[in-house]
Protein 1
Amino acid sequence: MHIALIGASGYVGAEFAAQINARGDRLTTVGRADCDVYSAEALRKTLRDASPDVVVNCAGYTGKPNVDACELDKANCLAGNGVLPGVIQQACESLNIPWGHVSSGCIFTGRRPDGKGFVETDTPNFSFRQNNCSWYSGTKALGEEVLADAQQCYIWRLRIPFSNIDSPRNYLSKVQRYENLLEAENSLSNLPEFVAACLDCFSKNVPYDIYNLTNPGSMKTSEVVELIKASGVSDKQFHFFDSEDDFMQRAAKTPRSNCVMDSSKAIAAGLKLTPIEECIQQTLKNWVPEKEAAVGQ
Ligand SMILES: NC(=O)C1=CN([C@@H]2O[C@H](COP(=O)(O)OP(=O)(O)OC[C@H]3O[C@@H](n4cnc5c(N)ncnc54)[C@H](OP(=O)(O)O)[C@@H]3O)[C@@H](O)[C@H]2O)C=CC1
Ligand SMILES: Cc1cn([C@H]2C[C@H](O)[C@@H](COP(=O)(O)OP(=O)(O)O[C@H]3O[C@@H](C)C(=O)[C@@H](O)[C@H]3O)O2)c(=O)[nH]c1=O
């Protein structure tokens, strides 16, 4: 399969590129340096010339070191998350190329009113329409609205990614590095399993649709801390904020979307997502500290 990857230079894009190469698929990367990705015509020409079988979009604006930074660069964030998906849709549809878009579970907060995790048909409850969200989450929800009528398109929802490679973007690293932790319940995505599931959508002919690609189940921060301690990866003394208000006052500029998601639709479609506790345990067993990860590159 020949895959054109938009956003290959990012945290998520790098994992896509690595797995595409490891599968022996053909990879063409498309970035802002190659063409004006905001021009459907320029993007169409670039894609037509490359002639891929499928396109994957993992470009987007996340904010560094975290989503707080999006509050300071709203126009770029809106462009990357709200406008770009629509331009890619236009280019792909004009060439009749199937494609997938990396969205985020952060368009939800909490649990459904019935206590269950959010499913794909639930309306995002952490969005500009609810007027309760971070700028980042609002733009990601808009991105999904833009793609509501997209053809031959997967929307893959990633949520607080983690892997065994220690890095500032890895949730298991963040838990070890933050001075104080917010106690919250979340569904999480193992990044390698997320990317494998996205690529499997094409190879297994999974129906085009929205998929929550989180590892089944959810974890409280304190439960993640216990797994880290039990693994021997860190012997740090972990400290917690007193409350969400304390977190907002001392560490955050904008609210976070801690939420529980239901990934049973993805599992039923044959995508492999290991239950969350088991997945974190396996990940910590194979932990590669950042210094060793840098040597291996
Ligand atoms: N990391 C996370 O925690 C999560 C990420 N996601 C989503 O996954 C996607 C990738 O995230 P991640 O890899 O972490 O992000 P990174 O910031 O690591 O990478 C972002 C990528 O998008 C490109 N990009 C950044 N801003 C823009 C813009 N305004 N217009 C066009 N291209 C842009 C960058 O390209 P360039 O080299 O040109 O700068 C880069 O390739 C995003 O859509 C994000 O919302 C979803 C859930 C969780
Ligand atoms: C800043 C901070 C966050 N947290 C918690 C809040 C939250 O539950 C969790 C993650 O918050 P962060 O601020 O690290 O990350 P944030 O930027 O909110 O993370 C998000 O990135 C974007 C791109 C996404 O799409 C999301 O799915 C998610 O991965 O860590 C702490 O415990 N202590 C802290 O000091």
Note: The two ends are 26 Å apart (CA to CA).
Protein 2
Amino acid sequence: MEDKLEAFQDFYPDDYSHCYGCGRLNEHGMQIKSYWDGEESVCRIHPRDYYTGGMKHIVYGGLIASLIDCHAAGTAAAAKIKELGQEMTRETMPRFVTANLNVNFKAPTPIGAEIELRGKVLEIKGRKVTIGVDLIAEGVVCAEGQALMIQVKETL
Ligand SMILES: CCCCCCCCCCCCCC(=O)SCCNC(=O)CCNC(=O)[C@H](O)C(C)(C)COP(=O)(O)OP(=O)(O)OC[C@H]1O[C@@H](n2cnc3c(N)ncnc32)[C@H](O)[C@@H]1OP(=O)(O)O
């Protein structure tokens, strides 16, 4: 039976599905899944309890940056295809890589809590898409990120 395609990352073709953060074919990765929620994108994940950042009860900052990065990459692809007025398919989905990523760590992110990432499309300018992402745990915005994503030329 064919897999149910729903999340942005499910539309990445196999060759582009090995990312540690979002590749559905990376069995050791986080395999995050991002979706539209109105004009925003959303991703929810429960990081394993060994992703600790120094102290046992907080999440490692590098993981936080990875989550923001990969959610922004998926949101950029979904936003671009929406701008083009096309449907997401494995044939049409554009691929984006990170050119620049900034993260402000605002509060410790508790281990064990569900993390919600909420993405906003800030700008689409040709191949360049800028995404803002809030990382929220237990109702607190623990980190804010902004990513400049560039569309891979072969997928233009
Ligand atoms: C090939 C990789 C495949 C990945 C598949 C992903 C699948 C999904 C997985 C998701 C993975 C999750 C995410 C990950 O982890 S992705 C992994 C981490 N990221 C990378 O490894 C990317 C490495 N960098 C590159 O490959 C190239 O530099 C890219 C492709 C980004 C651009 O090189 P390219 O030759 O294509 O384009 P260009 O140089 O003509 O620039 C074009 C425009 O962009 C502007 N600009 C460029 N850089 C910057 C900057 N730092 N700040 C501000 N602006 C910048 C530039 O001024 C120009 O603007 P304009 O003059 O047009 O106005």
Note: The longest strand covers residues 140-151.
